[in-house]
Amino acid sequence: MRRPTLRRVAHGVLRAADASPSWLPTRALFDPIKAVLSRETGPDALIEVAGALEAADVRYWLAGGWGVDALIGKQTRPHRDVDVVIDGFEANEPRARHALEAIGFRHVKFDEGGVWMPLRSTLDDDSGHKVELMGIDWPRLRGEMQARAGGEGVQPESDAQVGDEFTEGIVNGRRVPCLSAQVQRLFHTGFDLEPWGHHNVDLLDTEIGTSPGGDRADSGLHDPPRGTNRG
After folding, report:
1. Lowest pLDDT segment from 50-59, 157-166, 221-230
2. Which of 109, 152, 208, 222 could serve as 181's disulfide partner, Cβ 3.0–4.6 Å?
3. Cβ(36)–Cβ(14) below 8 Å
4. What is the pLDDT of residue 210?
5. Secondary structure letter of residue 207 according to DSSP
């Protein structure tokens, strides 16, 4: 069923405002409207995104709020977007973007993500779902992980070969690739956290056993159900 024309037009206007330079007053002007129109990007949307990326043979890992909830094995709060780390971002982002466009997403903008994931490509759809494709600062991650391990280690041959920094989580009974709890906890440092960020940190520390220093009792899935099917 197609969304009413007025709502589609409103989303188009907001996408244009969101893609505009941060210094323009339109960003602040449309924030209240955007908050109303933005909808939860729930588990069904996430699984559809995961399926599209896998069908396109794009290697990825969940990060952010959904990445933490997948590690816990249950949804703990509403999510306005899905953060997806792409292996070899510059080479593989176009393929990931085209895979999502094929299921109804539109590209909104390229911009800088943050301290640990500086490369970002944002997409959304007419239902208000939002996906952020992210590229990791691999040298910084490697340096930090090697420092915490007490040595320089061996330089990986590719982005994805960083050790045990990747694992699997569960969303609605489906296993999905995720950043490990250790990396997720690390990626919540170095900047001021918003309320949802504090929620993620609390879950990592209390449910999985990470600490501010990045130590953890378990870097992988927390109490995974047995016999879960990937499909």
Report:
1. 221-230
2. 208
3. no
4. 67
5. I
Q: Who's near 68: CB < 8 A, 6+ residues apart?
A: 76, 184, 200, 203, 204
Residue-by-residue DSSP string for 123-158: EE-TTS-EEEEEE--HHHHHHHHHHHHTS-----SS
Cα separation, 218 vs 176, in Å, equals 17
Instruction: Return the residue matching tokens 């910084």.
Output: 140
- The one-letter code for the residue type at 125 is D
Question: 100-103, long-range: CB within 8 Å, 24+ apart, which pairs?
Answer: 100/49, 100/52, 100/53, 100/131, 102/52, 103/48, 103/49, 103/52
Looking at residue 94, its pLDDT comes to 98
**DSSP category for residue 126:** T
0.85 exceeded by the pTM?
no
Q: Which of 194, 230, 216, 213 is nearest to 65 (CA)?
A: 194
